[in-house]
Amino acid sequence: MSLTSEEIRRYDRQIILPELGLSGQQKLKEARVLVVGCGGLGCPVLLYLAAAGAGTIGIVEDDTVALSNLQRQIMYATDNVGEPKLQEATKRLKTLNPLVNFIGYHTRLTADNALGIISNYDIVVDGTDNFQTRYLVNDACVMLNKPYVYGAINRFEGQVALFNYNGSATYRDLFPSPPPPEQAPNCAEAGVLGVLPGIIGSIQALEAIKAITGIGEPLAGKLLIMNTLSMQSRMVRIPKIPGTPTIDKLIDYEAFCGVTAETSEPLDEISYEAYMRLAESDADEAPFQLIDVREKHEYDSFNINGELMPLSELEKHLGKIRRDKTVVIHCQSGIRSRKAICLLKEKYGFNNLLNLSGGINAIVMPGS
Fold first, then answer.
1. DSSP assigned state of 245
2. Phi, psi of 326 (to 5 degrees)
3. 33 near 208, Cβ under 8 Å?
4. CB under 8 Å, gap of 24 or more: what pairs does 276-285 form?
5. Buried/exposed 11-23: b ≥16 CB within 10 Å, e otherwise
6. How far is CA 279 from the centre of its chain?
7. How many CB atoms lie within 10 A of CB 213?
8. pLDDT 10s per residue in the chain (368 long)?
9. Which of 41, 52, 110, 194 has the highest CB neighbour count under 10 A?
């Protein structure tokens, strides 16, 4: 279907660009773009793709808005805290551009549903913040021959690349194997400057538009790295690795990335609700010891009165860890606390440890 007079008026400032023109705008209208995640990166990606006139935009998101999101996730307002991100993002985007068709998937992308969802789209933009989802998106895109726009942020630095575009390198050419979980903190653990995902997400949207319309020189086979403190950027070539095994199935990506417990036995977990019931016990002495294995700056920002024993120096605190009562260990998301428990169980024989499931992220913060 050709552009309507309303669309021509709406997108006039793009259409008059000779590199894009009516034909480029028509390609945008016909495009089907899947955005995985509507957090820090996903928000600017979605806003700019919708504003630019991408015809159909799919959104994969299962999280709710938290107060700590608002520093960088510009789609949402304070009144949205506690509401589903997918719901609030879709409402906001429809007010921005009612001519776009939005399709929501209130779920997490998994090996079970990725191929079914991604097969309906022409290109995928990844707005997530973990290695397991990136490998999943990459492998599904390779299997389905779909371009994949990658973005990543950490503290003050961001990266963007376009993978699997006309035979270019894939994410596995950049990262043949994942780093250990403790070397790959997410934003909740490492922190991020609020404006950074706005910059990187906007570049991701730009790369998607270039790939859809065929204009310019896409970041295929190249990685753009930007440091916002120095405002210096550099381009790194990503060569294809010869002899890479063919990707013909999706795997257990959490196990592949080492997110699962580093022990042959499952870890005992306790939910925040169960922990609160224990904490409210009428016993004269607390029935458990609570240990926080985050770093001091995280603890100072927000804590639940645990004893601070950072994972990086946990073995220095062994004498403080009780063996005569239950010990509940937590971090921000549950990853570092799992590692701490594995260390204490396997190296020092502790058998009284519980992992606070989801960590601080599972707690309803004041005002949320």
1. P
2. -65, 140
3. yes
4. 278/326, 278/328
5. beebbeeeebeee
6. 32
7. 20
8. 899 999 999 999 999 999 999 999 999 999 999 999 999 999 999 999 999 999 999 999 999 999 889 999 999 999 999 999 999 999 999 999 999 999 999 999 999 999 999 999 999 999 998 899 999 999 999 999 999 999 999 889 999 999 999 999 999 999 888 776 555 566 665 678 999 999 999 999 999 999 999 999 999 999 999 999 999 999 999 998 888 888 999 988 888 887 654 444 456 888 878 888 777 765 566 788 999 998 888 888 788 889 999 998 999 999 999 999 999 999 987 878 888 998 899 889 999 999 998 888 776 443 33
9. 41
Q: Where are the alpha helices (DSSP H) in 227-290?
A: 253-256, 272-279
- β-sheet bridge partners, residue 330: 292
* DSSP string computed for 111-145: TTTHHHHHTT-SEEEE----HHHHHHHHHHHHHHT
**At 100, phi and psi to the nearest 5?**
-90, 145
Give the phi and the psi of residue 57 in degrees, each rounded to 5. -125, 120
Taking the complete model, does pTM exceed 0.90, yes or no?
A: no
Cα angle, residue 203 at apex, residues 87 and 192 outer, rounded to 5°: 70
Other CB atoms within 10 Å distance of the CB of residue 99? 15
Give the residue numbers marked as catalytic: 187, 331
Domain 269-362, CATH 3.40.50.300 — does that match?
no
Alpha carbons 255 and 346: distance in angstroms, whole number: 19
CA 276 vs CA 193, 292, 299, 331: distances in Å:
32, 16, 19, 16
Q: Which of 238, 226, 166 lies closest to 198, judged by CA?
A: 226
Pairwise CA distance, residues 331 & 254, whole Å: 18
Assign domain 31-256 to its CATH superfamily: NAD(P)-binding Rossmann-like Domain (3.40.50.720)
Domain boundaries, the chain: 31-256, 269-362
Strands 222-227 and 157-163: antiparallel
